[in-house]
């Protein structure tokens, strides 16, 4: 039989954290897409010590994905400890 | 270009295959029950599962395709990396926990636990099968296309070896052996991409790839005559008269005046120097006459700064047309949503013990895959300037880059390139096997099965899927299929399933109408009429994504050589509704 779906305050709190971080990443991703689609010339600028914005933003999105994933993991652990 | 068979590469690949098959038989006893066969008893450690995520996800398209696209077109290949990785955010924050908590063996379990609908189970099972087959085809085609240059074996041997080995792996121990194969492959792939990247940074950038003299800017002409013989610049192709390798630096930045090589560079410094350098890439133009098909490869000087911004592959971005931009946005949205809908990724959440382990393994997967995509950027740019590229085949960029360092590294990277196919295909066959046995036979058709029968049914389905994958390739229907299309299918179908789920009364007719269109488009033979390889880029490409905009973004203005493993999704032909309603 199926396990019960996640329930209770800890599960809801984890879901809220997940959706919040998801919204943050979507904003970053959408921002990148907007620049690529609307002002691609901006991506040739070099605001970060010589590396252009296209590379910096792309690497930043990858780093942000990992950073937010770690934040989520830690936050979920804290929520679970508090729930106990 | 002609390639010599590398016995070292064959030996490494054979060792890997024998190792994983031996491991599969050794683990066989753990796959005797349904829980073991379909979910590895939920006992896989989260770290192993995380690396297995990478091994499952990083297919030949990721390794060879993206690297080749960056080597040929510059930054635009990295856009695929960004989109593919972003999809894991959806998987972690939105999908992982509910899928793990609600399901048992398959994604259909999770939806069924919520909606209790036979129609939804059917729709999800069919979607799983369709997505799996669509993803299988390019993998098998890739195996066939790569085995000849990489290992020196005939095309059909690649398909048969991958089909047979993977089926054996899945049948012996199901998800247990599949997990360990993917773990080993994922680990090897990331580690050796790291080794190659260190070598690239240590070598730095050099004018004419370190060779004396100026860069040869003379065009080369490759002619394929009607009888199949190949000419290079009017003379028969031979080892001592072959196409020149391409892709190099013509001029270093002013800071290196009077020098022909930069020496070792730091990671970010590499981009800065390349941006200010002059790079010689190449363009390809094809024309036909009674003497055959002629492809002219012309060296083209380009500024590094132009190669490190969008627009090299997605030419439509520069046109300013709304349809082109929507197509690009649509493709990136499909990549974003597609990952979290791929059935062979979703079933991996059932191999760990709880939701916390599912989260941790996803984070490990994101770290491994993210690192791989960053490394791929260096690999692609390193290949672009290595002076070793085959102008006819962008998929060979990574192995040829390795060859520019040493034959041993080439052998290792070639063997790893081929094993990437094994890991992904085993996951896909496993997902399809569960969809047939668990979802269709047991849950939709309502045929009761004992634990042993469920395993046997899954194994029969796995063999069937392996044969289908080899058969479809054999019938050469797979040319226009590509990884991006599979991601689009997955994103679209899962979104469709959720829509149906929201209504809560889906039946057979609830199957997404777009599915049939995808099938027609995906299986439509390419213009080559069965060349046994993926459709060459630039042959009237259109792209579409979730919005299904009609006009393409026209990736190339001139035909590109080689059969890239990464392709924009196929053209949309129907009046599709957008997913996001």
Structure description:
The complex is a heterodimer of chains A (84) and B (581). With 84 residues, chain A is an all-alpha fold. The two termini of chain A are 26 Å apart. Chain A has one domain. The longest helix of chain A has 31 residues. The N terminus of chain A is likely disordered. Helices cover 74% and strands 0% of the residues of chain A. Chain B is of the alpha+beta class. Chain B has a six-stranded antiparallel beta sheet with strand order 3-2-1-6-5-4. In chain B, strand 5 and strand 6 form a beta hairpin. The radius of gyration of chain B is 23 Å and the shape is globular. The C terminus of chain B is likely disordered. The chains are: A mainly alpha (84), B alpha+beta (581). At the A-B interface, helix 1 and helix 2 of A face helix 5, helix 6, helix 9, helix 11 and helix 13 of B.
Please describe the topology of this protein:
The complex is a heterodimer of chains A (84) and B (581).
Chain A: H1 8-38, H2 53-83
Chain B: H1 7-27, H2 34-39, H3 46-57, H4 60-73, H5 76-102, H6 107-115, H7 118-151, H8 155-203, E1 220-224, E2 230-232, E3 235-236, E4 248-251, H9 267-276, E5 278-289, E6 292-303, H10 304-307, H11 322-338, H12 343-346, H13 355-384, H14 397-403, H15 407-444, H16 451-474, H17 483-503, H18 513-523
Antiparallel strand pairs in B: 1-2, 1-6, 2-3, 4-5, 5-6
Helix pairs in contact in B: 1-8, 1-15, 3-8, 3-13, 4-5, 4-13, 5-6, 5-11, 5-13, 6-7, 7-8, 7-15, 7-16, 7-17, 8-13, 8-15, 8-16, 11-17, 13-14, 14-15, 15-16, 17-18
């Amino acid at each position: 039989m199926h396990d019960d779906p996640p329930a209770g305050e800890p599960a809801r709190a984890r879901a809220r954290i997940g959706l919040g971080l998801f919204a943050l990443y979507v904003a970053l991703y959408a921002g990148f897409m907007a620049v690529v689609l609307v002002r691609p010339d901006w991506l040739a600028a070099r605001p970060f010590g010589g590396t252009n914005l296209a590379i910096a933003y792309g690497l930043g999105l990858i780093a942000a994905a990992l950073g937010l994933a770690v934040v989520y993991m830690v936050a979920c652990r804290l929520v679970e400890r508090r729930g106990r | 270009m002609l390639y010599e068979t590398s016995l070292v590469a064959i030996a490494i690949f054979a060792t890997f295959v024998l190792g994983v098959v031996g491991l599969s038989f050794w683990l066989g006893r753990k796959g005797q029950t349904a829980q073991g066969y379909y979910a590895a008893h939920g006992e896989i450690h989260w770290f192993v599962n995380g690396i297995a995520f990478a091994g499952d996800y990083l297919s030949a398209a990721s390794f060879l395709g993206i690297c080749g696209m960056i080597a040929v077109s510059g930054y635009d290949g990295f856009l695929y990396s960004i989109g593919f990785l972003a999809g894991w955010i959806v998987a972690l924050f939105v999908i992982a926990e509910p899928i793990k908590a609600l399901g048992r063996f398959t994604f259909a379990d999770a939806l069924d636990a919520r909606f209790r609908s036979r129609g939804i189970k059917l729709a999800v099972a069919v979607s799983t099968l369709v997505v799996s087959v669509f993803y299988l085809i390019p993998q098998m085609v890739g195996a066939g296309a790569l085995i000849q240059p990489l290992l020196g074996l005939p095309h059909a041997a690649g398909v048969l070896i991958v089909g047979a080995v993977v089926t054996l792996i899945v049948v012996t121990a199901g998800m247990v052996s599949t997990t360990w194969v993917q773990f080993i492959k994922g680990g090897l792939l990331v580690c050796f991409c790291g080794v190659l990247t260190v070598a690239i940074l240590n070598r730095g950038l050099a004018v004419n790839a370190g060779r004396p003299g100026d860069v040869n800017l003379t065009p080369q002409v490759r002619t394929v005559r009607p009888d199949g013989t190949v000419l290079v610049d009017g003379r028969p192709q031979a080892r001592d008269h072959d196409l020149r390798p391409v892709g190099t630096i013509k001029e270093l930045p002013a800071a290196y005046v009077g020098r022909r090589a930069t020496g070792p560079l730091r990671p970010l410094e590499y981009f800065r120097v390349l941006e200010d350098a002059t790079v010689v890439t190449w363009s390809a133009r094809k024309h036909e006459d009674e003497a055959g098909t002629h492809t002219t490869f012309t060296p083209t000087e380009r500024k590094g700064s132009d190669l490190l911004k969008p627009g090299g592959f997605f030419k439509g971005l520069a046109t300013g047309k709304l349809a082109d931009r929507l197509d690009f946005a649509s493709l990136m949205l499909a990549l974003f949503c597609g990952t979290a809908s791929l059935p062979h990724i979703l079933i991996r959440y059932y191999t760990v013990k709880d939701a916390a382990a599912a989260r941790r393994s996803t984070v490990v997967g994101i770290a491994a895959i993210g690192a791989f995509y960053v490394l791929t950027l260096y690999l692609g740019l390193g290949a672009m300037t290595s002076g070793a590229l085959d102008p006819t085949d962008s998929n060979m960029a990574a192995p040829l880059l390795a060859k520019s360092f040493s034959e041993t590294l080439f052998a290792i990277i070639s063997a790893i390139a081929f094993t990437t196919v094994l890991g992904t295909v085993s996951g896909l066959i496993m997902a399809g096997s569960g969809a047939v046995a668990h979802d269709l036979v047991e849950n939709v058709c309502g045929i009761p099965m004992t634990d042993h029968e469920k395993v046997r049914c899954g194994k029969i389905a796995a063999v069937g899927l392996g044969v289908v994958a080899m058969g479809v390739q054999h019938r050469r229907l797979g040319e226009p299929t590509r990884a991006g299309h599979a991601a689009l299918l997955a994103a679209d179908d899962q979104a469709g399933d959720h829509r149906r789920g929201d209504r809560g009364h889906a039946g057979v007719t609830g199957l997404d109408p777009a599915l049939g269109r995808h099938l027609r488009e995906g299986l439509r033979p390419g213009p080559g009429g069965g060349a046994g390889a993926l459709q060459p880029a630039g042959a009237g490409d259109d792209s579409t994504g979730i919005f299904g905009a009609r006009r393409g973004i026209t990736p190339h203005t001139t035909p590109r050589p080689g059969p890239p493993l990464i392709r924009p999704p196929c053209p949309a032909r129907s009046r599709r509704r957008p997913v996001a309603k």
